[in-house]
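To: structure desk
From: M.T.
Subject: fold request, one chain
Message: Could you run this one when you get a chance? Sequence is below, nothing fancy, just the single chain.
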Amino acid sequence: MNKKKMIRLTALVGVATATGVVAEANQAHAATTTTTETTNQTTNASVESTQAAVDAAQSTFDTAQTSVDNAQANVTSASNNVTSASVALSSAIANKEAATSENIASATSAVSSQAVVVASASQAVSEQAGVVSAAASVQASAQAEATSASASLSSSSVNVASATSALSAAEAALTSDQSTAANNLSAAESAASSASAAVSSGQAAVDNAQAAVASAQAIVDAVAKVQSSDVINMSVAYITALKNYLANPSSANAAALQEVAKGADYVKELQQKFKSGASLDVVVDPSDPTVQEALSVYAVNLINHLRNQYGLTTAFGASVNANVAAIDFVKKYYDDEDWNIFGTTGKGHNKNGLDAYANQLNTSIAEDAGSGLTTWVNGKATMATTTLHNLLYAVYSDIATMLFDDGGTNNWSHAQSIFEDGTILGTDGFNNVYLGVAFDKYGYAHYELYNATEGNHLGNNAYSLDVQTAAQALLTNAQASLASAKASLQRMTTNLMVAKAAVVAAQNQLAALENSSANDLVAVTKARTQLASAETSYQTALATYKQKEEALKKAGDNLAAAQASLEAAQATLATAKAKLAELEETVANLTNADQLLAAAQAAYEQAVANLTTATGNLGAAQVDLAKAESQLALAEDTAEQAKVRAAIAAQVDQQLNGSTANDHQSAGQDATSLKANGRALTATVATASATNPKRDADQGRLPQTGNDDQEASTMALVGLGMLGMVTGLYGYKKKKLTK
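Reply: Done. Structure tokens follow.
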């Protein structure tokens, strides 16, 4: 029972019960037990009967609902059929209007033309089918040949494997001594080859050492001659003017110095004093340590001679380390950076390089540069073909040129770098100057002035400035190197003789063993021949297999192309046939326009009739559904009323059976209270239907008057009767669909 119905029935119970209490308050109580028992039996039977009626009404309602759903579906289907029939009828009318003799003739002609197209397409399909058949035959033949070639290749591969195995067995049959002898021979031959190469190398070393001795001898002779005769002498007037200028580089002192020096004419005069001879015409490498020593000693002696004339007692030095540093600096900051100090686009000194290298060596560096090999009185020289004469003359000419005004912004800076003491060009820290000489890849000469300290080791490995002593040391070293090379060559020659003897011994040993195992060698030779033949056959079979595989691929491609063409022809034929069928259908429709229109009209009328019938059936089903709905609502209300009466009867029975003589007075008082408030019993009935009847008996007892319980029984029956009448009428007016 839902909440809405609970509220309605509770209100009715209150009114009916109050009426019964007021009317029957003074009746006798004697027959109370019998009356309530009979009432309980009657109300319980009524509950069961009304619930059965509800179930039957629900079943009737469900059946009616199904009928309505089916009828609605039939109406929808009939409506769709009417729509379709209407469309078909409109099409038939249009077809009838188009069915003129001209249209029929035109459509018939189109059918004839399309029939020709279909025949042509059919012929094309037949012809392409023949092409596919031929291509399939070629492909099948190619497949057979490829299969045969594959089998032949497999057989050849087996033969190669068998021959390889036979060769391995034959080679294994040779004795281990023979194998060892062969290895010994190979090792001996390798040792002999190495020894022979060593002898050749030793001979080259001897040749080089002899050339070095010859070169050293030439240098010794040339330097001794040149150094003793090639000195630069300055006049007293020049020295005085230079000192005045360096002390005070005024324009007047510069002019006086320029007048005394006589500029380029005096340089030319000095250059002409350079002594040349045939001993100097030997081609040398400017970076060769021996040449480096000669150049740096030569340059330092020229400079120190000038410093002595100037009155200075401190001399410049030359060393291996200073020369190595000069060569490294020029390569890194001029050659590697493509820095042309002069030339048509000369960049001048690489000042950033000088700063970086000074920081690297942690010392002071000054650089003078000269034209070097690029300009002379006697013409130009190159780095590749330069001679000792060219190098010495370049140094002599550069230092002579430095004594005079350079022009431009340099002024007398080169002369200043030669004649200063403890400082160079205003930079302090040149207390122990060592000179390094190097030529860049353009042929220009660089004179690097380093301040040598114990920390930078630039003064280590110093050269003797005594020309004759230094030159003789060069010659001695070269001769020692030649002697060492000759001794080494002698040892290598002895080793070669021993190695050749070992080769002969190994060859003899191998020959002896080969004679004793001739059969094994024959077997090996035969196995090798068979393996070579098997490998040749395999290569032939492989070539044939590749050829057949290529032919098979080509045949497959041709077949695929033919099949694609056939499919295209078949598609064309299908399209032509579909077009022909469409045209034939058009002719048939035009020819039979009257029959098609009549049939469409009949189908439309039948669809309309079917829709009318379906609509009527739906209306009837809806009426039946409404009736079933009303009956179901009435049955549900009746069942609910029966349940309420049964609940009240049970409550009355519990109240009457549980009362005592002492309760009568209380019941009378309750009845009096009920008269004052007719809604008092409402709460009692609602509570009793949901809780234990024996709980709070005094609160749930019906009000009574007098000492006879029959009064309460009579009152309850009267209440039940009125309740049945009122709720029955109310339920009849109420229609509620619970599905």
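Reply (cont.): The radius of gyration is 69 Å. Let me know if you need anything else for the meeting.
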